[in-house]
Specification:
The complex is a heterotrimer of chains A (142), B (159) and C (396). With 159 residues, chain B is of the alpha/beta class. In chain B, 38% of the residues lie in helices and 13% in strands. Chain C folds into 3 domains: 141 residues, Rossmann fold, CATH 3.40.50.2300; 57 residues; 161 residues, Heat Shock Protein 90, CATH 3.30.565.10. The chains are: A alpha/beta (142), B alpha/beta (159), C alpha/beta (396). The interface between A and B is medium-sized, with 29 and 28 residues.
Chain lengths: 142, 159, 396
């Protein structure tokens, strides 16, 4: 595994972003978190456009669904159909439990789908598990 | 037989690895029903309910497919390709667990839509930990698609 | 005229009933006889006469007479054909046949074919009575039709109102969870990270804020569960012991903690939605575990066959329920104990009730304070239910 992996965190809720940063700051993987607040910025980041010409290529994308302007599913649709980007694992991390959101996300190529837990402890565990699994056990494409 | 529930379909031809995987999953109480097939052809028959599994209830899909790459008859990559090409199986969580370190295999798998790719550790204890983590992540934390087939993780009642 | 005669005339005038009549008659003298009889019978008549089938049909298109008086024999056609025309046009207008002497057999035949009545020309005095009866019957029919329409409308309105409510409850609880999560999470962080830097009062405030937020989280989740009951319902044949097993699996932790023992045996096959029925048993058994007394909980799940349904019973040896509360327990958010005594929001049984009622059953509880409780509910039996699955004792 890379020394300090990069996570693109696509989420417009600063409260959740704050919590996520807290959890990951305490972990041994020393992940770098890059946060963008909506789908449009996410795509710009991944395509290195506009203000993101110097952006890194993330090792993992953690993606919320409900965001203004461009939502998570639009990001999935664009990224997973682009041969240059589709190998980047995308974890959908969202408040929605709706069956149709889950199914649709998988149809668009999400690697996994995790509902944000309501309980603080469980939220922290979920974020830790995501980081641990993808950076501690999985082989990621280069 | 035709209607049994399957939590995990383990596609693996090494008896050692099968034993260790089953042992770990059972010990950690992660899965009750693990079905083992030893080659890619049998895996496809099982999931497509064809061949010797023609009578299998197609509504009973596993919640996770653990797939080795080096398999007799039909290899893991081909199994993955076919699963992703078929609307009945394209949403199934598939985790490749293989001894291959080839960058080509990693890249190809993600291209084909594998959910994640995991290298089998050589170390016995690390292997156990890996299986345990896979089980927990994909059976307890992840939410699979319910396209009429895969079951949601059970709602755990709080005491 | 004398005053009394004037008053008589006035009285007679008042009681005259308006009537519009369509006469199907080819004989002018006969029609005049009929009209005079109607006037004598207390009707103020406005009338029209048609002779042919074509004229009859045309008249029907533009007017709706209160009654049709048709001669049986009209030369080229029969009064009975007028009936046929009425039927094909779908008009509900009383038709009375007036005719010269014809056998009783034919009279009965006419009425069987749909004629309201049959009056002989030399017994015309019967006509007014016959017409009044026909009009009364028509009115009753009308009233019934109106009532049915009204009922259908009310049912549709009620169904729509229910759907709206369910939708509201679902959306409200769903959208409430997000900001609630933020409040709960950050209040908890405050508590965990800053407790040392704050005085006793501040910590107390945070504690109550957090408690409130957490309680509201479970309340909203419970409300969401309650409002979801009824969505995506399936109907399959289910082995209820498998359903109970799944419920017990979900209650693992609680079972172990309390040392509870659950007996169930030879439970029948029923028709219903698996997810809902698991929830039903889970809630009832969960309650039985929760509300235990000093002894470790012993719970029995059994079933008894009634006509087309099974009566299930979940009995425990816990604290029981006082007589005056036996119905209230099923009301949503209704609780009988403080939160300090027993946790919970009071939604579990309301959910059970909703599930049972959606399956067409009923639920009730038998209990005495301090003597355990038996929660009973009915579920429809599987139509192809064989008798092989239970012992004779159960056939009570």
């Amino acid at each position: 595994m890379k020394d300090a992996p990069d996570i693109l965190l696509v989420d417009d809720n600063p409260a959740d972003v704050g919590l996520t940063r807290e959890v990951l700051a305490a972990s041994t993987h020393h992940s770098n978190i890059h946060n963008v607040p909506d789908g449009e910025e996410a795509i710009a980041f991944l395509r290195r456009r506009g203000k993101y010409t110097e952006a890194i290529r993330p090792d993992l994308v953690v993606l919320d669904l409900n965001m203004p302007r461009k939502g998570g599913q639009a990001v999935l649709a664009e990224v997973k159909t682009d041969p240059g980007l589709r190998t980047i694992p995308i974890v959908v991390f969202t408040t929605s439990h709706a069956e149709k959101d889950i199914t649709h996300s998988y149809e668009l190529g999400a690697n996994c789908y995790i509902s944000k837990p309501g309980n603080l402890g469980d939220f922290f565990s979920a974020v830790q598990s995501i980081e641990e699994f993808w950076f501690g056990f999985t082989s990621l494409p280069h | 037989m035709n209607d049994i529930e399957v939590d995990i379909l383990l596609v693996e031809d090494s008896q050692n690895d099968i034993d260790l995987t089953l042992h770990t999953l059972r010990q950690e109480k992660l899965a009750n029903h693990i079905f083992v097939v030893r080659d890619g052809e049998e895996a496809l028959d099982f999931l497509f309910c064809s061949g010797r599994y023609a009578d299998r209830n197609s509504e009973r899909m596993p919640r996770l497919v653990l797939l080795d790459l080096k398999l007799p008859k039909v290899d893991g990559m081909e199994v993955l390709r076919q699963l992703r090409a078929n609307p009945h199986t394209n949403l199934l969580p598939v985790v490749i667990m293989t001894s291959s370190k080839e960058e080509r295999d990693v890249a190809n798998s993600y291209h084909l839509g594998v959910n994640s790719y995991i290298q089998k550790p050589m170390d016995f204890e690390q292997f156990r930990q890996t299986v345990k983590t896979i089980g927990m992540y994909w059976l307890l934390i992840n939410q699979p698609a319910l396209n009429g087939v895969t079951k949601k993780p059970a709602e755990q009642a709080k005491p | 005229m004398s005053t009394t005669a004037a008053i008589d005339r006035a009285t007679v005038q008042e009681t005259k009933t308006r009537l519009s009549a369509l006469l199907v008659e080819d004989n002018l003298a006969d029609s005049e006889l009929v009209l005079r009889e109607l006037q004598r019978g207390g009707f103020e008549v406005s009338s029209e006469v048609v002779q042919t089938a074509a004229d009859f049909r045309r008249k029907l298109q533009t007017t709706t007479p209160d009654v049709i008086l048709a001669d049986y024999n009209l030369g080229s056609w029969r009064g009975m054909e007028a009936l046929e025309i009425l039927r094909t046009e779908g008009r509900d207008i009383p038709l009375i046949l007036v005719s010269g002497a014809v056998g009783d057999v034919t009279a009965v035949e006419c009425i069987k074919q749909g004629a309201t009545d049959y009056v002989l020309k030399d017994a015309l005095a019967r006509l007014p009575v016959s017409i009044r009866r026909a009009l009364r019957e028509k009115q009753t029919r009308e009233e019934r039709r109106q009532a049915e329409l009204e009922l259908a409308r009310k049912v549709e309105e009620l169904a729509r109102s229910n759907r709206d409510l369910e939708q509201f409850a679902y959306v409200a609880s769903h959208d409430l969870q997000e900001p609630l999560r933020m409040v709960a999470a950050y209040t908890q962080l405050l508590k965990e990270r800053y407790a040392d830097g704050l005085d006793e009062n501040a910590n107390k405030y945070i504690h109550y804020a957090l408690e409130g937020a957490l309680r509201m989280q479970t309340l909203v989740q419970d409300l969401l569960t309650f409002s979801r009951v009824g969505r995506n319902r399936q109907r399959t044949h289910l082995a209820s012991d498998a359903v109970v097993q799944e419920a017990l699996q979900n209650l693992q932790a609680a079972l172990q903690e309390s040392g509870a023992v659950v007996h169930y045996d030879n439970l029948p096959v029923v028709t219903g939605d698996r997810t809902q029925l698991v929830q039903l048993f889970q809630n009832l058994i969960g309650n039985a575990i929760k509300f235990h007394g000093e002894k470790a909980p012993v719970i029995t799940v059994s079933a008894k066959k009634l006509a087309a349904e099974w009566a299930f019973s979940v009995s425990d040896n816990g604290i029981g329920i006082a007589a005056e509360h036996l119905e209230a327990v099923f009301v949503i958010f209704q609780r009988l104990h403080t939160r300090a005594e027993y946790p919970g929001n009071g939604v579990g049984l309301a959910i059970c009730k909703k599930i049972v009622e959606q399956h067409g059953g009923r639920i009730w509880v038998e209990s005495k304070a301090g003597e355990g409780a038996s929660f009973k509910f009915t579920l429809p039996a599987c139509p192809a239910d064989g008798e092989g699955n239970h012992t004779d004792e159960r056939r009570a």
